[in-house]
Amino acid sequence: MKKLFSLLLVLLVLGLVAGLSFLFFFKLEGQPPVLEKVVLKEPLGKKAQATLVLFDKRSGLREVKIYLKQGKQEKLLFERTYPVDIVWGSKTKAQELKVSFEPLKLGFRSGKARLIIAARDASWRNGLKGNTLIWEKEVLLDLESPRIVVLSPIHYLVPGGSNLVVYKISEPVRRQGVVINGRSFTGYQLKEHPHKFFCLVALPIDQQEISQMYVEAEDLAGNVSRLPVAYYVRKKRYRHDVINISDAFLKRKMPEFLERYPDIPRDDLLKAFIYVNTVLRQKNNREIAQIAHHSKITEFYVDKPFLRLPKAATRALFGDHRTYYYHGRKIGTAVHLGLDWASIARAPVPAAATGKVIFADYLGIYGNTIIIDHGLGLFTLYAHLAGFSVAPGDLVKRGQLIAYTDTTGLAGGDHLHFAVLVQGVFVEPIEWLDPHWVKTRILDKFKTPTP
């Protein structure tokens, strides 16, 4: 009996110690919640967000409040309370919060303010109110949108055409550019014109009109401005052409593709051609659009009209709508996205303008291809070449020999396929060959005065 009493006494003492340990470790613990991380994108704009991570591993979180204070004005931005059991505390031991708020709508103004985070845990301390964390940080509010001024006059475009928009912005920005029918074109700054943005734009050939055209800018605080751009779209009709595919052509050209592309149907040369002329063509054009989308050079090298292939006849125009027939049966359609020039076999090909070679390789239907970056998102493409006299990274001068013409790719005879792209959009090369167009639509705008 005495042993039983002793055992009960030991168990009682152990239970009392365990209870007191629980009480002091969990219920009367004195550590406030821990603010592990706060992420703010400063300055804070009209639409701001704060991301924070809080934890309290003992008694758990009871309440979180976030305030913004400026002078005598203080507004509650966020409040959340968590269920608390009087014995077991809060089950929420950690919490990540993303809090969005709009300072301008809350009555704040641009300038300095203080962001305050207050958090309480589920401890019994402080009259069961728990331990409190107070965190403060001075923040900068930028609640004014950037001001945009378009400096260039009305912008004339045709389907497949291009133009230059010049504008200035009142403050440093995170992003800017011109939007046409939902497609964004990036503006560039040049050393000799530090206060202006120059944005080459294009209207894709399959779009006959413009529903929206505006400059958009987002400042470092995330405030966004839009300003409409004056434009006029002139209708333009492109030619329709018929191309007959012969058995001799299939036997001569398809092996070149069968060797390089395993996905091409191999049991029938006609099926192989249809695949090359549709699937591979689309894939190649997407790849070109990616390569020729953004200039990595800081200069604009075009100060004259583009050079054409010397002593060459024009065999096909930009925008030609081609229909392909085989033995009288229609087998496909395509839009020609460049100019075809034919001269003598293996004719020397000059660079149309000064620029940097960014691509020199075999490229599907275009065969051996060179792409040159001229700055401001303007690129020229030279296809069906015999080989390469330049390499990626080379800076070439206007008129410099870069290659020789040939029949590589989907070419029926020796010629040069010449294309122009503006930020990934194929555009009418004839515009860039026309001295008057280049002067009035492009070069004269660099002289636009800044008010």
Describe, in plain words, how this protein is organized in 3D.
With 451 residues, the protein is of the alpha+beta class. The protein has three domains: 29-141, Sandwich (Immunoglobulin-like); 148-235, Immunoglobulin-like; 240-426, Distorted Sandwich (Glucose Permease (Domain IIA)), CATH 2.70.70.10. It has six helices and 32 strands. β17 (213-219) and β18 form a beta hairpin. The protein is elongated and about 95 Å long. The termini are far apart.
Measured as a percent range, the helix fraction is 10-25%
Question: Mind telling me the CATH superfamily name of the largest domain?
Answer: Glucose Permease (Domain IIA)
| Shape-level CATH architecture of the largest domain | Distorted Sandwich
The CATH topology of the largest domain turns out to be Glucose Permease (Domain IIA)
Total of domains: 3
Mean pLDDT: 93
| Alpha-carbon Rg, integer | 34 Å
Cα distance, first to last residue? Answer: 104 Å
Low-confidence segments: 9-26
CATH class of the largest domain: Mainly Beta
Annotation, overall tally of beta strands: 32
Secondary-structure-based class equals: alpha+beta
What global shape is seen? Answer: elongated
Provide the β-strand percentage band.
35-45%
Query: How many DSSP helices?
Result: 6
Largest sheet: 8 strands, antiparallel
